[in-house]
């Protein structure tokens, strides 16, 4: 097997230098700054700082508001990842059955991913606004007193719906690619053997989609933890009564609104460690059930 070789030592370094610079500036440097600030107590203007060790971490873990944010994050992440992946898989399977206009149908399904998270949140807020929202009449017609700005359960449902809608297109794209990679001969052979559509899906199609599903599980977990900040900020701002305040939104509230810089830095460090541990757990235990071919 022939291996590609570079004639000069510095050429590979120059090729990866832009990515290294971006990672260093926008990831590693902020991470180091967060670690440094997490052991300090600073005034709101950043003029004085005092080394307090792990006191910020102890205060965060003893804060009932942080424990509430952790519980909200678990519920929100599970619902968002579950709904967005399940609906995307259903749409991808149905898209494979379309004969005419398949490409146009897939293009329409991918478009929502281009919408910014804050814009997606505002769209859903306008559609379901209790005063003038066009779709707010649906729950009222069902006898539901609809007001997500005051009802915590309805607020959670609205942000989950907006976040899931935003991510469905991304999941749909990968599920379609995974379905196209499955040999049609396997499905045809199972149909000849008498297996129905539902049995063919659960015994052949879904197991062969395991690598794609595992990849999307990791991506959707990170998405629910970080990328949904704009949606929550636009729709509920963490309310009502902090019922939709996730961990990443609490970092913003404490750091930029309340100017608790040390506490905010400690929370960001804990969130970073949580994501690393969760991703490692998924790769170590969940990936064992994934078969690649």
From TrEMBL:
<dbReference type="InterPro" id="IPR035906">
    <property type="entry name" value="MetI-like_sf"/>
</dbReference>
<keyword id="KW-1133">Transmembrane helix</keyword>
<feature type="transmembrane region" description="Helical">
    <location>
        <begin position="201"/>
        <end position="226"/>
    </location>
</feature>
<dbReference type="GO" id="GO:0055085">
    <property type="term" value="P:transmembrane transport"/>
</dbReference>
<dbReference type="GO" id="GO:0005886">
    <property type="term" value="C:plasma membrane"/>
</dbReference>
<feature type="domain" description="ABC transmembrane type-1">
    <location>
        <begin position="70"/>
        <end position="282"/>
    </location>
</feature>
<comment type="subunit">
    <text>The complex is composed of two ATP-binding proteins (UgpC), two transmembrane proteins (UgpA and UgpE) and a solute-binding protein (UgpB).</text>
</comment>
<keyword id="KW-0472">Membrane</keyword>
<dbReference type="InterPro" id="IPR050809">
    <property type="entry name" value="UgpAE/MalFG_permease"/>
</dbReference>
<comment type="similarity">
    <text>Belongs to the binding-protein-dependent transport system permease family.</text>
</comment>
<dbReference type="InterPro" id="IPR000515">
    <property type="entry name" value="MetI-like"/>
</dbReference>
<keyword id="KW-0997">Cell inner membrane</keyword>
<feature type="transmembrane region" description="Helical">
    <location>
        <begin position="256"/>
        <end position="281"/>
    </location>
</feature>
<keyword id="KW-1003">Cell membrane</keyword>
<feature type="transmembrane region" description="Helical">
    <location>
        <begin position="69"/>
        <end position="92"/>
    </location>
</feature>
<feature type="transmembrane region" description="Helical">
    <location>
        <begin position="155"/>
        <end position="180"/>
    </location>
</feature>
<dbReference type="Pfam" id="PF00528">
    <property type="entry name" value="BPD_transp_1"/>
</dbReference>
<keyword id="KW-0812">Transmembrane</keyword>
<feature type="transmembrane region" description="Helical">
    <location>
        <begin position="104"/>
        <end position="126"/>
    </location>
</feature>
<protein>
    <recommendedName>
        <fullName>sn-glycerol-3-phosphate transport system permease protein UgpA</fullName>
    </recommendedName>
</protein>
<feature type="transmembrane region" description="Helical">
    <location>
        <begin position="9"/>
        <end position="29"/>
    </location>
</feature>
<comment type="function">
    <text>Part of the ABC transporter complex UgpBAEC involved in sn-glycerol-3-phosphate (G3P) import. Probably responsible for the translocation of the substrate across the membrane.</text>
</comment>
<keyword id="KW-0813">Transport</keyword>
């Amino acid at each position: 097997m022939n291996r590609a070789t570079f004639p000069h030592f510095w050429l590979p370094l120059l090729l990866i230098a832009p990515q290294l610079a971006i990672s260093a500036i926008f990831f590693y440097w902020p991470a180091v700054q967060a670690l440094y600030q997490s052991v300090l107590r600073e005034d709101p203007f950043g003029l004085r700082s005092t080394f307090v060790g792990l006191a910020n971490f102890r205060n965060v873990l003893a804060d009932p508001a942080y424990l509430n944010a952790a519980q909200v994050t678990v519920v929100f992440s599970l619902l968002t990842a579950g709904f967005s992946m399940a609906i995307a898989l259903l749409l991808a399977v149905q898209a494979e059955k379309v004969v005419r206009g398949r490409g146009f149908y897939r293009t329409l399904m991918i478009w929502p991913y281009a919408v910014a998270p804050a814009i997606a949140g505002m769209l859903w807020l306008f559609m379901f606004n209790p005063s003038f929202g066009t779709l707010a009449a649906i729950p009222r017609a069902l006898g539901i007193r609809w007001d997500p700005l005051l009802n915590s359960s309805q607020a959670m449902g609205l942000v989950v719906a907006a976040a899931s809608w935003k991510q469905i297109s991304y999941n749909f794209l990968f599920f379609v690619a995974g379905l196209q990679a499955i040999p049609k001969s396997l499905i045809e052979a199972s149909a000849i053997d008498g297996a129905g559509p539902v049995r063919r899906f659960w015994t052949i199609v879904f197991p062969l989609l395991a690598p794609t599903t595992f990849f999307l599980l990791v991506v959707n977990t990170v998405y629910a933890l970080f990328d949904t900040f704009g949606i929550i900020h636009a729709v509920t701002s963490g309310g009502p009564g902090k019922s939709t305040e996730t961990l990443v939104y609490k970092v913003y509230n404490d750091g930029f609104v309340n100017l608790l810089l040390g506490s905010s830095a400690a929370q960001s460090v804990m969130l970073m460690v949580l994501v690393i541990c969760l991703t490692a757990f998924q790769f170590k235990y969940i990936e064992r059930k994934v078969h690649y071919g």
